[in-house]
Amino acid sequence: MLDYHIKNIKLAKKGKLRIEWAGEDMPVLNLIRERFAKEKSLANIRVACCLHVTSETANLALALKAGGARVALCASNPLSTQDDVAASLVKDYGISVFAINGEDNKTYYSHINKVLDIQPQITMDDGADLVSTVHQKRKDLVKNIFAGTEETTTGVIRLRSLERDNLLLFPMIAVNDADTKHLFDNRYGTGQSTVDGIIRATNKLICGTNFVVCGYGWCGRGVAMRAQGMGANVIICEVDPLRALEAVMDGYRVLPLAQAVRCGDIFVTVTGDTSVIRKEHFLLMKNGALLANSGHFNVEIDLVALRKLAKGKRRIRDFVEEYTLRNNKRINVLGEGRLINLVAAEGHPASVMDMSFANQALSCEFVKQQAQTLERKVYRVPKKIDQEIARLKLKALGVKIDRLTPEQKNYLSSWELGT
Question: Within this chain, do residues 107 and 225 fall inside the same structural domain, yes or no?
């Protein structure tokens, strides 16, 4: 009997349509799914997944199952689950799902443990909560685990910390580090979906606003690019001099956050760090400022400090909490400080997740094939996989490119040829 814990199985009909709709924009993953089905590339492999339970993730789960894997899925964020998609995965596709939108912290971790109860051979993470739970509370499972994969920047940071301290218990593939992931998913996916989430949550006009982006990594680049494209005056706040210099060269105004908070209308944190916007910043903000986060965890905006400063709080819109400070200044937090693109919108578009989840699927196959050779390290996705995904994506888009001639190959591989 299939084990699961979801909101309502009756939502499955709508969820199935959403899964099919997303699948139409995921041609690379569909090709992988077809090959997996023929070759049974993951036959009898147990895969525990802690990912955002969305229509795009559903298509990844179906690809893994087509390859013969037993898949169990839980949410990597309490507010990102699409309950109808979860229902369809259970009812229509026979996949164990443990995820309910809005679940509390206790339920969230109970779902992680339910997924781990399948005794996985491969783990698949978005934020490393699954791997972290194994390392802290479920070390008995390590003997079965070949390796794991990690989807996002925050998770890779946690894994490299484990590796640096010599505490990593099994190999990990940093899917986020693949060029066909972070150059596209982080930049174009986060950029569009973050602005989409802010607009859906607030119905505010972006053009003409002072739009402050905290962090100028690939996600920050994407958010800044899209906000600027909609007419915002973009301000970048950074701690890395190289990234700050790049933001200047890209045409943005770069300021310390302590200065930016005095003029900012909309703030987005995309740093992967904690307490980016803090007490001293709240006190200097304009009345009515909007605060959103697109970093993985809800720690980038110091909500504990904000609650202590506030004399009152009310939910003024579905995804907007208005904090009134003692001086009657109002500060609006979107999506409870969690990933605004998934809380108030639908996350990254399927066409960009196509490449991210192609990396996940092919990394699973790689892990199965190379299980005996991998060490307890964090690995990049093999370049061969990265390039194949790019090739397939271009083919799906109908784009053709040139090839090097033998003479050009020889020139690039030699040292003798010069002026």
Answer: no
Is residue 4 domain-resident?
no
Other C-beta atoms within 10 Å of 11: how many? 18
CA distances from 231 to 208, 225, 228 (A): 6, 10, 5
> Which token pair is 155?
């998770």
Q: In whole angstroms, what is the distance from residue 215 CA to residue 51 CA?
A: 23
Range of the domain at 241: 190-343
State the total domains in the chain: 2
- For the CA atoms of 224, 215, 202, 199, the dihedral, rounded to the nearest 10 degrees, stands at 30
Helices 27-39 and 383-397 pack at an angle, to 10 degrees, of 120
Strand ranges (DSSP E) for 66-187? 70-75, 96-98, 122-125, 147-150, 172-174
Structural domain includes residue 311: yes
Scored b (16 or more CB within 10 A) or e, 179-195 reads bbbbebbbbbbbbbbbb
Q: Are 163 and 126 found together in one domain?
A: yes
Instruction: Give per-residue pLDDT as tens, 212-240.
Output: 999 999 999 999 999 999 999 999 999 99
Crossing angle of helices 12-23 and 55-66, rounded to 10°:
80
Looking at residue 302, its pLDDT comes to: 98
Residues in the chain with pLDDT values less than 50: none
Pair 31, 121 in one domain: yes
CATH of the domain at 259: 3.40.50.720
pLDDT in tens, 14-31: 999 999 999 999 999 999
| Long-range contacts (CB closer than 8 Å, 24 or more residues apart) made by 227-234 | 227/195, 227/266, 227/268, 228/252, 230/195, 230/206, 231/206, 231/207, 232/206, 232/207, 232/208, 232/266, 233/208, 233/209
- What was the pLDDT predicted at 417? 78
